[in-house]
Amino acid sequence: MSDTPREERTPTTTIDVSALEQQASKSAIQLSTESRGKNRRSAITSRSELPKARRVVVKVGSSSLTSIENSIDENALHSIVDALGRVKAQGVEIVFVSSGAITAGLQPLGLSRRPKDLSTKQAAASVGQGLLISRYTEYFARYQVTVGQVLLTAEDLMRHSQYKNAHRQIERLLDLGILPIVNENDAVATHEIQFGDNDRIAALVAHLIKADALLLLSDVDALYTKPPQHGGERIATVKDPITDLEGVEIGTIGRAGVGSGGMVTKVEAARIAAASGIPALVTSAANIERVLAGEDVGTWFDTTGGRRNVRLLWLAHLADIKGTLTLDDGAVDAILGRRSLLAAGVTAVSGTFTAGDPVSMVDQQGVEVGHGLVNYGSDEIPGMLGKRTDELGEEFGEDYARELVHVDNLVNLRRRSARTRLKR
């Protein structure tokens, strides 16, 4: 036997070349975003921690940027750009959701009030969008910041393929050091597919890019228990939007009369963000410097949930509900227990809708318990009510031997307190 020592072999592992190529094709920012986790809540837990945020969505309302008389408020734009430019220089990723396109286009078109018909709104928006983006390009350049315009419709965040495209676009802009400026594409949106306000766009964009916080800025400095001139007190923190907003009067129209939302849409947007793991702060644009410094201003919405599927967010908060299904107690329990809705548990149907439309589901007292995408039209469901799935298959054929609403197309809802009042 030879005394020559044997050469030890180094253990080897199989290299998955395909996986490496796929990994290499992703940008660093995409990998960073994915590592945040699907159900993670933001690490920012209070307004005082906002200076630590690394990715923030800032939405500013029409009334803080424009006026019917003067088109664009140059001083307001300067103040907002100055604040965001300084924060961006510190390495914070900012996505700016800017309202005001329609109002900015009114004066150049010789209009003295916000139009009501869709075509004139679209014409004003196409003019106003150009004016606003030119101002932003000029003002942000003073901070060596390049901006990129992102125009979205509701459909862009409802359809999976377009949602992915919007996500890739914004992520790539951030990866390149660009400050994305987002607005609803009013020039092409229709009544059927428009958001109706940029507050909810901001909430969904915050979810889309997994932001650390959402700032909703307007001409109102906070949410109050009732109008301040009538003795209302500031609501500093909202931990539970249902119980904490009992008795609160929420205005539906902005003071300047140029926006489409008002405080009610800001509260709704804050709830959307909070429910998807992103804290939100509602205050005035005049407070932007103090907000970014973490000072005690505005109304802070604590997170109430984790990251959610964007389609379910849309279904819960943005879908155009076409009809209503009334459920028995057993069906309500099934819905709340995350099970599909069967025809046997439905006692009544109202509205006009087709298969695939969003519908509301209510209990016997009329309390809404969920939204879902229905598998059958309103003309088909009455003959199906109260029947078991096997009975439906025998009577109508195998196409009817399935659920009315599949659990994957269903979202549970927590209703707003009956003592929360909308002030119109």
From TrEMBL:
Chain sites annotated for binding substrate: S99, D186, N198
Primary localization: cytoplasm
Location(s) in or outside the cell: Cytoplasm
A GO CC annotation given for this chain: cytosol
Group of enzyme by EC: transferase
List of residues binding ATP: K59, S218, D219, S260, G261, G262, M263, V264, T265, K266
A single GO BP: L-proline biosynthetic process
Keywords: Amino-acid biosynthesis, ATP-binding, Cytoplasm, Kinase, Nucleotide-binding, Proline biosynthesis, Transferase
Gene3D superfamilies on file: Acetylglutamate kinase-like, PUA domain
HAMAP family: ProB
Protein name (Swiss-Prot/TrEMBL): Glutamate 5-kinase
Biological classification of the source: Bacteria, Bacillati, Actinomycetota, Actinomycetes, Micrococcales
Encoding gene (name): proB
